């Protein structure tokens, strides 16, 4: 029994809420509670808010049945909530009517969910013998939807990273307040109402931008502070505030119809803050906070996770075994039981949705003793399903290539390249070399001397993400004029999207979002704390959201605007990359770099007759070159097909070489046309 205020609550019986907080639509949702006799209760009540997940919402009070018994000075009541369909949920508070007819309601509330599709136990996922792959027996769930083969051209595609809650709201479904995550569009740390169906509704927007792969933030049911998806409490269920399993299937299917691959962000390192460890006053070995009476927590799903011995306590302080950020419960991934549980949960999401890859969050905080068998097993399973190039992307935020290369034995298909980001973007802008780091990246000069398992070119490169300051902010902080800063932004986008690695942009890049990481001071302690409010902006209109330094949504354009220069440029760059295999595989040769800022680069290969010629002006003054000679060893050319110029510029062949005209900080690319009459 849990006691609080003038109430008590039966909270440890397996089939009674709130111990069970996910029910099937055909199960009774029972609640038992008591009211202190000192409050003269006449009858018990439940105050509730109902959302059936289909757009119908209701609220009210339900009178409880009086059990006629007294426990420890509390009069006991019970009730069964009215049934609702799968995909819905309740939020409720205990209450009562006293002998004088006055109604009382607890300030504490609980949530309950109804879902027929998600397993509550790993045992509910039927794992069958599928055959032999790589001479080893393979077990796993039979796919519940038709499987789509992997794209054969990952390197040609522009990736796009999405935080579902902040990307797009859905017009035909109101799912706010479903689940534990707080909905408050004015609070930068609460849910703002973005949904999976909202992403589906914007597939054509993404296609028109030139996106051919999206990375979705985690879809797990999350704790109250997990609007972003990284604080899971149920590893096998779609958070109902985001949608349902059917919504996710629909998104994947619609994306595939548009030739957009879908990569799902998954969390194998941790679950949300759930355990009171001995170090903090809990019992030996720790105990789940819910069992100790903490009504802000729940017991995690699947039920196999309800054992504190599966997690590392605060006594672990190394990179791999410590609790992430000091409060997220860290799985003991070194144990075979945890490995099997987490690998099987990954197979579940593939079999249920037909996704094309995983982004593995916090990869450096999980050891190779997990990643090696995990990546190998997922590769075998997806090969069996016909997804032979299923992506397994590691989000390893190490600052040096050596840190990432140390994970080569895991054999990830791709790694998010933080070291190259730091060198090409963060450090180069900080030391006033401006665009030099981006030009170095474009030329391939930043590739490390030691090899990645899948090769440096298969790494994912970015200019910004949900954990970094926006690249446009970096330019605007140095160049107050938005038009002038846009010139730098376009140069950076050209270097990224036409660069040697797989390019990825973050939602809002195309709409010139310009937020920055910041610091704020706690009023109670004076402690300075970092915040990410201005890099988690809503793509949709939400003027209510403010932070202590001002509004979050300070947009340059109307949401999802397709008719401004940056959107159009990304669209053009994405198409050039997709249509020119030479960009992904060709050799990049720096033909010249002049003191006036002119760089000329050739992308060439024996397999392609028409090399690509690039001219860049990294200087603040216009460049006029009368005749830049292309060495004869690359062939002789009769003309040039200009493909793109970012901010005014051109070049064309003349007798003796290339005539070039470039505005400051301009990037121009063209295809050289070979003279067929000459050998």
What's this entry about, in short?
This protein has 679 residues and is an alpha+beta fold.
**Total helical elements:** 13
CATH H level, superfamily name of the largest domain = Glycosidases
CATH architecture field of the largest domain: Alpha-Beta Barrel
Name the CATH class of the largest domain: Alpha Beta
Description:
- The protein has 679 residues and is α+β, with helices and mostly antiparallel strands.
- The chain has four domains: 2-114, Immunoglobulin-like, CATH 2.60.40.650; 159-395, Glycosidases (TIM Barrel); 422-500 and 507-579, no CATH class; 583-674, Immunoglobulin-like (Sandwich), CATH 2.60.40.
- 20% of the residues lie in helices and 31% in strands.
- The chain has 13 helices and 41 strands.
- The protein has an eight-stranded parallel beta sheet with strand order 27-26-25-19-16-15-29-28.
- A hairpin with a 2-residue loop joins strand 32 (546-547) and strand 33 (550-551).
- The radius of gyration is 28 Å and the shape is elongated.
Keywords for this structure?
single chain; 679 residues; alpha+beta; Immunoglobulin-like; TIM Barrel; 4 domains; 8-stranded parallel beta sheet; 6-stranded mixed beta sheet; 13 helices; 41 strands; 31% strand
